[in-house]
Specification:
alpha/beta, 10 helices, Rossmann fold, five-stranded parallel β-sheet
Length: about 190
């Protein structure tokens, strides 16, 4: 089986949960790119004060769409090297790029990897968005949800980057993480033949 196995998709699609189950079933390490994000971002000069200023003046949507992008690309580049032997869950923003040159760089980085899997609830974008928003709000029951965070779900879901980068798409609605992991294993065993 070609490694790494890379899971991409919007927030609340189950990349981390499914990634952990999948890695366990395959006897591989699980790596969450978001856990190393700040370390990687800081390597190339991430400015927390500037990010906070952008978020306060323009909102988290602008921060995610523009300021983080060069740092996200660096994190992808580093993660692919550091975690080449396992299952990698990308953060939602690590596979979405507005700037075509940045997208093309991400595409070149992922081109050698056969197992880039987009996780989504179902083929219908509107239904998927509703499902993901419910999941996201359920993950944060005691916190007030910023409406811009829900906008980010729509943005990451509908943006064409994920579809263009993915080599496979797996739908998760109505399936447990174990069932989805089994489906991914079956898919990958067919691909590696």
């Amino acid at each position: 089986m070609d490694l790494p196995i890379i899971l991409i998709g919007p927030m609340a699609t189950g990349k981390t949960t499914i990634g952990r189950v999948l890695a366990h079933k395959l006897g591989l390490e699980h790596h969450d790119l978001d856990e190393k994000r700040w370390e990687y971002h800081n390597e190339i000069g991430y400015d927390q004060a500037l990010a906070a200023k952008i978020a306060s003046e323009e909102g988290s949507f602008a921060l995610a769409r523009f300021y983080w992008k060069p740092f996200d690309l660096h994190a992808v580049e580093r993660g692919l090297v550091d975690f080449a032997d396992g299952v990698i869950g990308f953060g939602a923003g690590n596979s979405v790029y507005e700037d075509e040159a940045m997208f093309e760089r991400a595409q070149r980085l992922l081109a050698p990897y056969a197992n880039v899997i987009l996780l989504s609830p179902c083929p219908d974008f509107d239904e998927s968005a509703a499902i993901l928003k419910r999941r996201y709000m359920a993950q944060e029951p005691d916190n007030e949800i910023n409406p811009q965070e829900l906008e980010l779900i729509d943005y990451f879901l509908r943006h064409p980057s994920n579809q263009r980068l993915a080599k496979h798409v797996v739908f998760t609605e109505g399936k447990s993480p174990e069932q989805t992991s089994d489906e991914i294993i079956q898919l990958l065993s067919k691909v590696s033949k």
